[in-house]
């Protein structure tokens, strides 16, 4: 099965940041929402059990919030391949709901410092992924798809060659709608 979706990536961000090793109370970040295409490829072991590989890239801007409000910190692209183990319910006719759990490995690239900062680096990291969705089959092969995922993601961050350090909890919700093709 292959799915193509339009995907809204909505970070649910928070941060714990330090400057020169001293925690900055109230320092937080704001990460932009992104709308991107997504491709999913599924392999069914049985009519109910499948694995799905989720592919896409997302650009995001990072700004300061709280004690850092107004500061432009940087931007980055995320390559977050996710491997999901899914259970597909099959007793609902053309309606095919599913749930999934899996692992995500996010690679951060094209990181750029902004707003007077000289460097901006996010560390690649693993995270847990949860999923729920439904395929609404129009015929034997084609269908419409609605999907929601939650990825738990908390990379380490360094700004200005490590002067500012910490962890950024990104924890995005991913809302997708698209087309399913079943072989």
TrEMBL record:
A GO CC term assigned to this protein in UniProt: outer membrane
GO terms for biological process, alphabetical: transmembrane transport
Coiled coil: none
Pfam families: OmpW
Family as reported in the entry's similarity comment: Belongs to the OmpW/AlkL family.
Record-linked PANTHER family: OUTER MEMBRANE PROTEIN W, PTHR36920
Name of protein: Outer membrane protein
The organism of origin for this protein: Bosea psychrotolerans
